[in-house]
Amino acid sequence: MGSILVIHGPNLNMLGKREPHIYGSLSLDDINAALMEKANQEGFLLESFQSNHEGELVDRIQKAFGHTDGLIINPGAFTHTSVAIRDALLILNLPIIEVHISNIHKREEFRRHSFVSDIATGQIVGLGARGYILALSAIMSILSKEDSLK
Q1: Was 133 annotated as part of a binding site?
Q2: What is the pLDDT of residues 109-118, one digit of tens each?
Q3: Which residue segments constitute the domains of the chain, with CATH numbers given?
Q4: Which of 8, 10, 13, 122 has the highest CB neighbour count under 10 A?
């Protein structure tokens, strides 16, 4: 059906350990495994990538050009600071869903601005780790050109 790339930004490798009252108890491996299982069930290829380094994230996004059909991204703290990640995403010309485990719009003022949201196809915030699954469902639906609510 298609290939989907999931990009996880800085500190997301510490999920389950870092501020569980905000980010929950699931690890990044738990999230990636659930995404992989759902993608495989629907016949999609899925790859996940995490880095704490802005340049590595930019490099991986650029590498997706021409090789990926849809992208899910949680840029972490780079959401609020990285024009470089934004510019790399603009190169892709494919569906992009921005995900945040917490509701960035209800947090500190500096976390309320996203350099990604206005170029993303959609944004899912504040629904915990299930936001990733919802983003995956949305991307698969877009790539399948489905117009249903299933």
Answers
A1: no
A2: 877 788 899 9
A3: 2-58+81-144 (3.40.50.9100)
A4: 8
Q: Residue 35 corresponds to which amino acid?
A: L
Residues belonging to the active site: 23, 100
101 is an annotated ligand-binding site residue: yes
* Chain position carrying tokens 């510019």: 87
- The pLDDT tens digits for 88-114 are 999 999 999 999 998 888 877 877 788
Task: Report, as an integer, the average pLDDT of 128-145.
Answer: 96
- 17 burial type by CB count under 10 A (0-12 exposed, 13-18 middle, 19+ buried): exposed
DSSP 3-state assignment of 125?
strand
Please spell the DSSP secondary structure of 28-52, one letter per residue: HHHHHHHHHHHHHHTTEEEEEEE-S
33 phi, psi to nearest 5 deg: -65, -40
For 137-150, the pLDDT digits (tens) are 999 999 998 766 55
69 is in an annotated binding site: no
Report whether 12 contacts 72 (CB < 8 A).
Answer: no
